[in-house]
Amino acid sequence: MSVFRPGLFTGRVALVTGGGSGIGCQVSIASRNLERLDKAVEELRPRGDIQAVQCNIRNEEDVRSYDWLFMWTSAAVTSTLKTFGRLDYLVNNGGGQFPALSEDITLKGWKAVIETNLTGTFLMTREVYRQHFEEHGGVVINIVADMFRGFPMMSHTGAARAAVENLTKSWATEWAENGVRVNAVAPGIVFSPSARDNYSFDVFSEARSEIPAKRLGTPEEVSSAVCFLLSPGASFINGATLRVDAGGSLYSKLMKVIPGSKPP
Ligand SMILES: CCCCC/C=C/C(=O)SCCNC(=O)CCNC(=O)[C@H](O)C(C)(C)COP(=O)(O)OP(=O)(O)OC[C@H]1O[C@@H](n2cnc3c(N)ncnc32)[C@H](O)[C@@H]1OP(=O)(O)O
Ligand SMILES: NC(=O)C1=CN([C@@H]2O[C@H](COP(=O)(O)OP(=O)(O)OC[C@H]3O[C@@H](n4cnc5c(N)ncnc54)[C@H](OP(=O)(O)O)[C@@H]3O)[C@@H](O)[C@H]2O)C=CC1
């Protein structure tokens, strides 16, 4: 997702997991696939000072670490601080899941989704707080999802995202005195090739009719919300979740077709 806008964030530094761009802001983008990250850096370099950091957010060593001599390493947080000398924003955007009925989810699959969406967000945020925000303050944005009525067919991610929404509130209170704000953004349905490839049918075409606006959202519409919550314009907003879904989370769509009811 394209995260920053010109002018608003000049001189500020952001660490964004799962891609995202820096326009008018210095940015580290962090995910597992270095080849894809390097490609994104090449595309975005003309628009801002941007670096790629290979990091599996599920892996504490990737997220954390200084080495035993406290030398800088290539880990996500330390390398951002080394390159840019400061850190103002963390956007926990990295995440994903696969569609499956709960009874079909293996323990390995459950753990993969919980570790990616919940543990990864916890590790990244804890590390940024310890290494920088505790002393200097900052803003955290957690990208969650429309799980407000449960998440049939994706119960693992529903549970993880609901937990992240709850963490958002805990952190907002725990770290307020250190000048840290923590908010969440809950996108509705936005086209994503990786999600498309996870489905056996054309999920995005079908989803369109389930959205009151009768269209999908765009990455820019999500990034506008992220930018607002990062900006001083949101300085009195803490612990909130902003739904960016054109009202989709209020609409009675069924993600799993229920053909009929059996007698009790
Ligand atoms: C109504 C429509 C809503 C659409 C809204 C879209 C929302 C989005 O979030 S868009 C972004 C979505 N993108 C993705 O979700 C793609 C990324 N997904 C993943 O990376 C994986 O799904 C992951 C999160 C589970 C983690 O993958 P990884 O760490 O690489 O783990 P493995 O691939 O090795 O899988 C571990 C384990 O997980 C189970 N599993 C994985 N994929 C599936 C699948 N498609 N179906 C069923 N089970 C799956 C499986 O148990 C895997 O173990 P093995 O069986 O030993 O491979
Ligand atoms: N598209 C949509 O409709 C919606 C999306 N969301 C959420 O918004 C976020 C962005 O989604 P979108 O851009 O559409 O999807 P993408 O699948 O394109 O982006 C997900 C990103 O997360 C990264 N990622 C996944 N696992 C890890 C990991 N273990 N460590 C580090 N990075 C990881 C991936 O990079 P890599 O594989 O290189 O690690 C990828 O860049 C995700 O959290 C998604 O679940 C929420 C609601 C709806």
What is the secondary structure topology, with strand pairs?
Elements: E1 13-17, E2 26-31, H1 34-44, E3 50-54, H2 60-63, H3 76-84, E4 89-92, H4 107-136, E5 138-143, H5 155-174, E6 180-187, H6 193-198, H7 203-208, H8 219-230, E7 241-244
Parallel strand pairs: 1-2, 1-4, 2-3, 4-5, 5-6, 6-7
Ligand LGGBLMCM binds next to helix 4, helix 6 and helix 7.
Report what the structure shows.
- The protein has 264 residues and is an alpha/beta fold.
- The protein has a single domain (13-244), classed as Rossmann fold.
- The chain is 37% helix and 14% strand.
- The protein has 8 helices and 7 strands.
- The chain has helices at residues 34-44, 60-63, 76-84, 107-136, 155-174, 193-198, 203-208, 219-230; strands at 13-17, 26-31, 50-54, 89-92, 138-143, 180-187, 241-244.
- Strands 3-2-1-4-5-6-7 form a 7-stranded parallel β-sheet, sandwiched between helices.
- Helix 1 (34-44) links the parallel strand 2 and strand 3.
- Helix 4 packs parallel to helix 5.
- The chain is globular, with a radius of gyration of 19 Å.
- The mean pLDDT is 89.
- The structure holds ligand LGGBLMCM and NADPH dihydro-nicotinamide-adenine-dinucleotide phosphate.
- Ligand LGGBLMCM binds next to helix 4, helix 6 and helix 7.
- GO terms for molecular function: trans-2-enoyl-CoA reductase (NADPH) activity.
- Participates in chain elongation of fatty acids. Catalyzes the reduction of trans-2-enoyl-CoAs of varying chain lengths from 6:1 to 16:1, having maximum activity with 10:1 CoA. Has no 2,4-dienoyl-CoA reductase activity.
- Its EC number is 1.3.1.38.
- It is an enzyme of class 1 (oxidoreductase).
- This is Peroxisomal trans-2-enoyl-CoA reductase.
